[in-house]
Amino acid sequence: MGRTIGEILAEVDQRLEWAQIRFKEAKESGLKVIGLYCGYIPFELVRAVGAIPVSLCGSDADAIPSAELELPRNFCPLIKSSYGLAITDTCPFFHFADALIGETTCDGKKKVFELLARLRPVHVMQLPYDKNAPGALDQWRSEMKRVSEFLVGVTGIEPTPERLSAEIYYENELRRVLQRIVRTFERPVPSLTWTQMLSVRSLTDFVVDRAPYLALIEELAEAVSVADAAVGDASTSGRMPRVLVTGSPMSPETNKVMRIAEESGALVVAHDACSGTKMFDRLVDEEGDPLDALTRYTLYIPCACMSPNDGRVDLLRSSVSTYGVEGVIDTVWQACHTFNVESVIVQRACREELNVPCLKIETDYSAADEGQLRTRIEAFVEQML
Ligand code: SF4
Ligand code: SF4
Q: Which residue's alpha carbon is at the smallest distance from atom 4 of ligand 2?
């Protein structure tokens, strides 16, 4: 008899906890670690030069006061946390990073990469903001080439087409298994909660050796499908409105909006942000030139930094339909102008096209507004009953 979902999830949490030890061992064995801050930078490219990618997006509220000694207080908490962790050397993953790759996704990040360059070698990818503009694909392809040269400078290993194709296949395998797991959220009674799924997805960002991670999520996919089959198509006991949480990315430590929604009686069935399905709901093309395939895959990420960003509403439309969503919560980190302005488009699509209520929440990493958030989210959930 296989392990239960609870036992597998306990191992996910344990692996998250121990991830820093794996990175320490990797460094000691001579591997290079590359710190990344965004999904526009493909893990495949980093792996193809023999290095280990790690996400350095900060989720620690305690690191923010140190960052505020240099950065404006009215600034995105994700950037402040990342920067605070870096300058105080309190993030083990930043500590182990040999080099950083940044991107010009938002003004805050691109200026902070100038500051981080004092601490580590930094390469910044120049992202075109309109993916359909003439020359955008060529420009992004040449950025892929440039970052690949930078990475070769760090490890001395060429990302040959064969190596890149193998990495694309492996990362796609991870995406395929994660896609299988989230199918549980299409059911009346999912076998997981999205707060649990957040940890499962988050672990992808902190993996040295992917084989045990792949085996673990395959085991989870199997356990979820057995549990789904056992529950059958029974409807929930009691009415739980099906909610999609969208917007700025969150982590298991900064997921207060999702957590409060679940505690308030909502069934969170979709999370289409970078911390959710956005990074695995499509596959990289396994045919043709692998660098071209990565260029297309990343350029078409529907992030709010794109202008226009039609893909965001397309994604919202398909998530609402796939998961039977009855209400949307749009979460925006304070001072994140791109997601904040785009919230108008999200709310309009919910109201005028999708016919579902939408609650916009602007917040930061502190617990100070939790009481007020709970009141608003409870009222939102109640209105759908
Ligand atoms: S939300 Fe946009 S900028 Fe942030 S990690 Fe995702 S793709 Fe990158
Ligand atoms: S949440 Fe917004 S401001 Fe913060 S890093 Fe992401 S895009 Fe930039």
A: 76
